Predict the structure.
Amino acid sequence: MARRYRVGLSFPGDLRDGLVSQVAQILALKFARNHTQDGREFVLYDRFHEDQFNQPGLSYELPNLYRDNCEVIAVFLCAEYASRHWCGLEWEKIKQLVADPAGRRRIYLIWYGPQEDTILEALGLDRKVDGFREFTQPAPPDVAEGI
């Protein structure tokens, strides 16, 4: 099944204007080199697709965009992710993919900041069985390269 986006970025708004924005730009440049189109078309990031994100009923559409239209979903986990409404909506659909062996290969978990078991538990994750990439001081090119 062909998907509209190569990568979807799921993150709390606190990370938008720093790390996530820089990662999104790096990914867009990478995809632009491999295609004739603007690379932003291949990255599901709210600043690249404001028309898609500024609509009534977004809470119904957004989780499905991640689940059905992204080849890979990069999830920026942190304390804020576990407590944000929009992240919770996205995470419900992402968890469905984690439960499916084929779907879980589409998920790239990035842990940003100090790990706390209570945050992992709130997301239904367990550091003993769930793998994720950990960054304490992430360099955007390193994060983008991992994705």
